[in-house]
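Fold this complex.
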Amino acid sequence: MNFIRRVLMVLGIAGIAGAILRIRGKSEPSTQRGGWRPLNPPTDLLEEQISSQK
Amino acid sequence: MIGISGAIGVIGAGVTGSRVVEHLVATSSTPILLYDQDLYGAQRLAAVHRSHSAVVSVADFETVATASVVVLACGSPHAPLAQKMLASGASVVSLSDDVSDVMNLLKMHDEVMAKDKTLVVGAAASPGMTGLLLSNLQSNFDEIDEAHVALHGTGGPNCAVQHHRALADQSIGWHDGEWLRRPGGSGRELCWFPEPVGAYDCYRAAMADPVLLQRAQPQLQRITARVSANRRDRFTARLPMLVPPHSEGGMGALRIEVRGFRNGSRIVEIAGVAERVAQIAGVVGATTALFVHRGEITTTGTSVLGQDSLPNAEILRDVLTGGIRLHQFVGT
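Structure:
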C-alpha cells in the first residue's frame, strides 16, 4: 500500500513539475513595431498579376 | 430533376459546410447536392437556401458522388471519401487540415491522374488561404526561401478537436531540406494578427501547412506552422477534451510571413486575414470548387493551393470579392 502511495506521489510530483515546465517561459515577439494595412478591395497588384500570367 | 452531372456536391452540413454552401449559392446558380450523416442538419441547411437562385438538394452519398466536383467539408479522414468520389468520376476539393489525412490524400496522386480528375488538397483556411497568400506575396520577391504560418481560432467543433489534438501531437517543419519533428506546444512566439484579433502566443503544432506549402513551392528552405494557445490549452492538450467544443469559434485570424531576396537585399513580407476561420475555409473551399467546376483548374492529379500550375491570383481575387479582408503588416 505504501509502495503504491509513493509511486502515485512521485508520478503526481513529476506531472506537476512537467506541467509547470511546459507552460512557463517568455514570449518571443516575431515583430517589434508596425501595424496592419488593409489591402482590400482586390488590389491592382492582383489584377497586374493576373494579366501578366495571361 | 436537376442536372446532376452539372452539380457541385458538398459533404458536411456543419459550420464549414454551411459556409461553403452559402458562398456557392451567393456566387453561382449551379445546383448543389448536399449530404451529411445528420440528415436533419442537411435538410435545415437546404431549407435556408430554398428561396435562392441555386437549388440546394439533400441527396444520399451515391447521388452526391455523381456531381462534377465534390467539396469535402466534414470531419477527417477525407482520404476514403475522396477515393469513393473519384471512383464515381467526381473531382474533389478537400478541406482537411489533419496531417496524416493530408499525406494520404497526396499519396493518391497517381490514382487521380489515371482517372484524369483533380483533387485539391487542403483548400481551407490554414492550409488553403495560406497557400494563396504565399503565392500572392511571392510576386514581391526575386526569390523566396522561408514561410512561417500562424493561426488563431477554430471553425466548427471538428476543427476545435483537431486544434486540441494538434497541440499534443508532434509538429512537422521543413528545415534546410529535412523534415523536423518537434513536440507540439513548444516554440512559443508572440504573433501579431490583424485587428481586431491582435497579439497571441503561438506554439508549434501538428499542422498540415508545412507539408502543403513545401509541395506548392519546393524552393522554400524553411517552413514552420504555429497555432495560438493559452496555458489551459497546453496544459490539457494531452488529455481528452474536458469541455465540449463551442458550436463555432469566435473571430479567428491567420498570417503568413515570407522571407527572401529582392534586388540582393533580404526582405520580409507578412500578410494576414482576420475573420471567422470557418468563413475563410468555406469561401476558399467554395471558390476552389467553382474553379474546378468551370474548368479553370485544368491540372489533373493532386494539387495544393499556391502551386504555380493553379490560377492562384484569380482564386485569391474571388476569395477577396467573397468578403475576406486581406491585410499586410508594415513594420519590423
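The mean pLDDT of chain B is 90.
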